[in-house]
Design goal:
By secondary structure, the protein is of the alpha+beta class. It has 1 helix and 3 strands; from the N terminus they run H-E-E-E. It is 16% helix and 26% strand. Strands 1-2-3 form a 3-stranded antiparallel β-sheet, with helices on one face. The radius of gyration is 13 Å and the shape is globular. It starts with 13 loop residues before the first helix and ends with a strand.
Length: 70
């Protein structure tokens, strides 16, 4: 993946990123057969000025959000 392929860029303090990961990592799947659930999805919330992290293992769902960086 090259930098030119990315539509957005932003700077996020390491403490904010760490908080998002710590709040959602317990719900990341560790099963080899469900490899598509092995990660955290970061996205901008359309209905508000937030950056949200979401993870699931098919049984648990974790969500955390912070104010969207500029």
């Amino acid at each position: 993946m090259s930098v030119d392929d990315l539509g957005h860029s932003f700077t996020l303090p390491a403490a904010d990123l760490k908080r998002l990961i710590e709040k959602t990592r317990f719900a990341i799947s560790t099963e080899e057969t469900r490899y598509y659930l092995n990660g955290i999805y970061l996205h901008e919330v359309a209905s508000g000025p937030y950056l949200r992290a979401v993870a699931t293992d098919g049984h648990r769902l974790a969500q955390a959000q912070i104010a969207r960086p500029e």
